């Protein structure tokens, strides 16, 4: 939690104002941030200086694991986070590749589970990684990437947290996640949870121990309409200790994640937090 607050403060102290054409909003921007999560000791990086809707963050990531391309499927899992980008973004509404309401196109999980090969068939990046790690194999290329520039015009948004690299040392699993663009008040609250939970889940289903997760961010920003609440409200609050995340131990395979897992299989214990803050969302 302290590293999150330190990053927010660093953006305020050292950030530069940058115009953003896509959203029409200026952002206070900092380049390069490194965050670390202690998954081995279950130090769940949940924001405590406001109430975090952590189940929505896990639901969003489970949707990526399942290869969803539709905001309605995300809603059914428990998150509305893709509604605006799928349905309120004029550039995407005008795009002939959009298949209809709620369609997100070839984003995130579509690339992760069925990257299109030259012969037209799909390559399942995640299944390959799960197979190797389950056999204690790390080929130094256990990389899941959602970043496919050749298909950007077929999706509603380019992936922000775009690449996840797994590494095995003995039977301890590590994760390094890369993010090109980070909405620190809203997105990072979710992305921290997702990096942590992804490593915990992958360790569990591949029979390894979870080590640390490393989260590398390039462009970290606060939108101009979010700044007063961050600077004058959230940063004035004292953080509470980290809670813990409990995952149903019956989750044992990628198939389990694809089929029966719901948000009821995740529990947070010891979550002390301040009141919610509703930050504006830029579409
Ligand atoms: N501008 C922007 N920021 C983002 O963080 C972001 C995007 N766009 N587009 C794609 C996804 C969608 N994400 C989202 C979308 C909405 C919330 C959000 O509204 N969070 C609220 C409440 C969530 C709830 O009630 O479930 C929050 O207070 O955290 C968070 C992340 C993250 N990404
Ligand atoms: O997981 C996510 C997804 C999105 N974001 C934020 C980062 C930016 O504020 C926008 C995306 O805008 P681009 O113009 O495509 O950079 O969404 C995030 O923080 N985390």
TrEMBL record:
Q: Which Pfam families match?
A: Thymidylat_synt
Report the EC code(s) recorded for this entry: 2.1.1.45
Output the CDD domains linked to this UniProt entry: TS_Pyrimidine_HMase
Task: State where it is primarily located.
Answer: cytoplasm
Q: Which GO terms describe its biological process?
A: dTMP biosynthetic process; dTTP biosynthetic process; methylation
Summarize where dUMP binds, as residue positions.
Answer: 22, 180-183, 191, 221-223
Residues bound to (6R)-5,10-methylene-5,6,7,8-tetrahydrofolate = 183, 282
Q: Which keywords annotate this record?
A: Cytoplasm, Methyltransferase, Nucleotide biosynthesis, Transferase
Enumerate the catalysed reactions.
dUMP + (6R)-5,10-methylene-5,6,7,8-tetrahydrofolate = 7,8-dihydrofolate + dTMP
**Chain ranges passing through the membrane:** none
User: Looking at the keywords, is Translocase present?
Assistant: no
- InterPro entries named in the record: Thymidate_synth/dCMP_Mease, Thymidate_synth/dCMP_Mease_dom, Thymidate_synth/dCMP_Mease_sf, Thymidylate_synthase, Thymidylate_synthase_AS
Coiled-coil regions listed:
none
Pathway listed for it is: Pyrimidine metabolism; dTTP biosynthesis
Active site residues of this protein: 160
Please name the GO terms that the record assigns under molecular function.
thymidylate synthase activity
Protein origin, superkingdom: Bacteria
Query: One GO CC term of this entry?
Result: cytosol
- UniProt-annotated location(s): Cytoplasm
Q: How does it assemble?
A: Homodimer.
Concerning its family, UniProt says: Belongs to the thymidylate synthase family. Bacterial-type ThyA subfamily.
Q: NCBIfam families per the record? A: PRK01827.1-4, thym_sym
Please give the function described in this protein's UniProt entry. Catalyzes the reductive methylation of 2'-deoxyuridine-5'-monophosphate (dUMP) to 2'-deoxythymidine-5'-monophosphate (dTMP) while utilizing 5,10-methylenetetrahydrofolate (mTHF) as the methyl donor and reductant in the reaction, yielding dihydrofolate (DHF) as a by-product. This enzymatic reaction provides an intracellular de novo source of dTMP, an essential precursor for DNA biosynthesis.
Name of the protein this chain belongs to? Thymidylate synthase
| Organism, scientific name | Neiella marina
């Amino acid at each position: 939690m302290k590293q999150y607050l330190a990053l927010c403060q660093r953006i305020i102290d050292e950030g530069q104002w940058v115009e953003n054409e896509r959203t029409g909003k200026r952002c206070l921007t900092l380049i390069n941030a490194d965050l670390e999560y202690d998954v081995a000791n279950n130090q769940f990086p949940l924001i405590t200086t406001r109430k975090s809707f952590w189940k929505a963050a896990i639901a969003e990531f489970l949707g990526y694991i399942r290869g969803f391309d539709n905001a309605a499927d995300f809603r059914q899992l428990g998150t509305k986070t893709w509604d605006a980008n799928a349905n309120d973004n004029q550039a995407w509404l005008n795009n002939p590749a959009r298949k209809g309401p709620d369609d997100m196109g070839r984003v995130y999980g579509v690339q992760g589970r069925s990257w299109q090969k030259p012969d037209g068939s799909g390559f399942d990046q995640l299944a390959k990684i799960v197979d190797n790690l389950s056999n204690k194999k790390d080929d130094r290329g256990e990389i899941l990437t959602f970043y496919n520039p050749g298909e950007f015009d077929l999706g509603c948004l380019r992936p922000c947290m775009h690449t996840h690299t797994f590494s095995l040392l003995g039977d301890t699993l590590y994760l390094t996640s890369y993010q090109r663009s980070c909405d620190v008040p809203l997105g990072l609250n979710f992305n921290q949870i997702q990096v942590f939970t992804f490593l915990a889940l992958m360790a569990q289903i591949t029979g390894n121990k979870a080590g640390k997760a490393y989260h590398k961010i390039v462009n970290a920003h606060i939108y101009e309409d979010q700044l007063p609440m961050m600077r004058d409200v959230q940063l004035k609050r004292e953080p509470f200790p980290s809670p813990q995340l409990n995952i149903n131990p019956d989750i044992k395979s990628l198939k389990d994640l694809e089929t029966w897992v719901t948000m009821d299989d995740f529990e947070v214990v010891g979550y002390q937090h301040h009141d919610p803050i509703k930050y504006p969302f830029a579409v």
